[in-house]
From TrEMBL:
TM regions (residue ranges): none
InterPro entries noted in UniProt: ArsR-like_HTH, WH-like_DNA-bd_sf, WH_DNA-bd_sf
Species in which this protein is naturally found: Algoriphagus zhangzhouensis
Any GO BP annotation: regulation of DNA-templated transcription
SUPFAM superfamilies: Winged helix' DNA-binding domain (SSF46785)
Lineage summary: Bacteria, Pseudomonadati, Bacteroidota, Cytophagia, Cytophagales
CDD domains hit by this protein: HTH_ARSR (cd00090)
The protein's name: PaaX-like protein
Amino acid sequence: MLESLVTSKTRVKLLLKFFSHQNSGYLRSLAKDFDESTNSVRVELNRLTEAGLLVSEEEGKTKVYKANSQHPFFTEIKNMVSKFLGLDDLMERIVKRMGDVEKAYIIGDYANGIDSGTVEMILIGKDLDTQYLEFIKNKTFEKVNRKVQVSILEEDPGTISGILVFGA
């Protein structure tokens, strides 16, 4: 759906990253997260910045990018991304009801901008309510017609390749 409107896979990944939640990122970490070359990510960051969809600021010697919430289409793009992911509702429920969720990642096909019908997530936290998780996974399938696969880790290994949708 989204990939038919936006032909660059890297651009889709960036839109998902920045418009799914109030994420920010810098060139090298984005390239690593997306398993893309820094050049292809840089080209798309420049295009999105020139279009006014992203803004950047210097943090020391690092340029950090984030969605431009002042852009006239910010809300529309955010809504499109949320609908594409079909997870905005799910994420809010999980974070509120699961316990002490520190971070939540979307990995796999959805993190790469591909609607395969299965959403893979990793939740990081201790003593999370796995019974509620089973309930919400079934409700999500009924609501958005997508399977949800969730892995739970107690600590972030620092090697997760995906989109951070909750936490810092």
